[in-house]
């Protein structure tokens, strides 16, 4: 009989212990929640309670009419939320929780200030425009070396040279480009001739456009005194135009050159158009 009583008492104690295990105490509350806008998102911050008497946090906000919930570690006092849009305003709820497998108890719900994410910018990628020998002409052209075809052959080891032995003319010298259709030009890149002579290396450029290939108008001039380096310069130089210029005919002028010569020379020249992507609009399409 005693064995039966002991067995019943043990079963009662076990049941009571399990009941106590499922009981969840309320968590300590966080404080000082705030939201700060960043590009395409927000940073949520809060102050943790000193006793850390909670298991985890939930951060919630509304997106497209639905509530998005992110669980956050009890040891974290901030959360970065991205994928938000500049055209919307957001506020966030932060709540501490204690929980077991079968139950959870939440603390006070704290709400941040309303924020508008900072607008994403414009991404610019430069695409090379095909330019062939038949599309260009030069003024002037040396007959003994440096044909104009070398200017656009994609090989910096070859070079173009304006006239120095006959029909010599003072600078500016230039390269004209005739595109099949109107083309946007945003950037010009060039290599110096791959030798150690500094004389003739361009120190200032200009850009003209034309509607008929005869009458040209100056639309851009570079800074003067562009660096020419020393010795053999193997790096590519970039002329960033102040904006994209659209035309069928372009004239790239060498307005001045190192050593103030009556000629100029280049290893290679290439031409680029800017492809712009509005990252905010792209994000809206994928929101």
TrEMBL record:
<dbReference type="InterPro" id="IPR013783">
    <property type="entry name" value="Ig-like_fold"/>
</dbReference>
<feature type="domain" description="Fibronectin type-III">
    <location>
        <begin position="26"/>
        <end position="121"/>
    </location>
</feature>
<dbReference type="InterPro" id="IPR003961">
    <property type="entry name" value="FN3_dom"/>
</dbReference>
<dbReference type="Pfam" id="PF00754">
    <property type="entry name" value="F5_F8_type_C"/>
</dbReference>
<feature type="domain" description="F5/8 type C">
    <location>
        <begin position="115"/>
        <end position="274"/>
    </location>
</feature>
<protein>
    <submittedName>
        <fullName>DUF4959 domain-containing protein</fullName>
    </submittedName>
</protein>
<dbReference type="InterPro" id="IPR008979">
    <property type="entry name" value="Galactose-bd-like_sf"/>
</dbReference>
<dbReference type="Pfam" id="PF16323">
    <property type="entry name" value="DUF4959"/>
</dbReference>
<dbReference type="InterPro" id="IPR032527">
    <property type="entry name" value="DUF4959"/>
</dbReference>
<dbReference type="InterPro" id="IPR000421">
    <property type="entry name" value="FA58C"/>
</dbReference>
<dbReference type="InterPro" id="IPR036116">
    <property type="entry name" value="FN3_sf"/>
</dbReference>
């Amino acid at each position: 009989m005693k064995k039966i009583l002991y067995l019943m008492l043990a079963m009662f104690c076990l049941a009571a212990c399990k009941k106590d295990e499922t009981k969840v105490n309320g968590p300590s509350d966080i404080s000082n929640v705030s939201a700060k806008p960043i590009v395409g998102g927000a940073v949520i911050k809060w102050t943790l309670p000193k006793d850390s008497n909670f298991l985890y946090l939930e951060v919630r906000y509304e997106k497209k009419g639905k509530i998005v919930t992110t669980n956050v570690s009890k040891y974290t006092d901030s959360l970065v939320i991205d994928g938000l849009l500049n055209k919307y305003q957001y506020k966030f709820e932060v709540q501490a929780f204690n929980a077991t497998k079968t139950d959870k108890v939440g603390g006070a719900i704290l709400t941040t200030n309303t924020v508008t994410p900072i607008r994403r910018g414009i991404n610019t990628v430069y695409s090379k425009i095909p330019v062939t020998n038949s599309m260009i002409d030069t003024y002037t052209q040396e007959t003994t070396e440096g044909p104009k075809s070398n200017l656009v052959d994609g090989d910096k080891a070859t070079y173009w040279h304006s006239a120095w032995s006959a029909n010599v003319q003072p600078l500016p010298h230039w390269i004209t480009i005739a595109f099949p259709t109107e083309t946007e030009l945003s950037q010009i890149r060039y290599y110096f001739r791959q030798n150690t002579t500094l004389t003739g290396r361009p120190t200032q450029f200009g850009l003209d456009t034309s509607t008929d290939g005869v009458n040209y108008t100056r639309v851009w001039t570079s800074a003067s005194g562009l660096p020419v380096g020393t010795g053999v310069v193997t790096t590519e130089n970039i002329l960033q135009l102040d904006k994209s210029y659209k035309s069928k005919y372009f004239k790239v002028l060498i307005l001045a050159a190192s050593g103030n010569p009556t000629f100029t020379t280049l290893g290679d020249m290439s031409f680029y158009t800017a492809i712009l992507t509005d990252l905010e609009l792209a994000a809206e399409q994928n929101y």
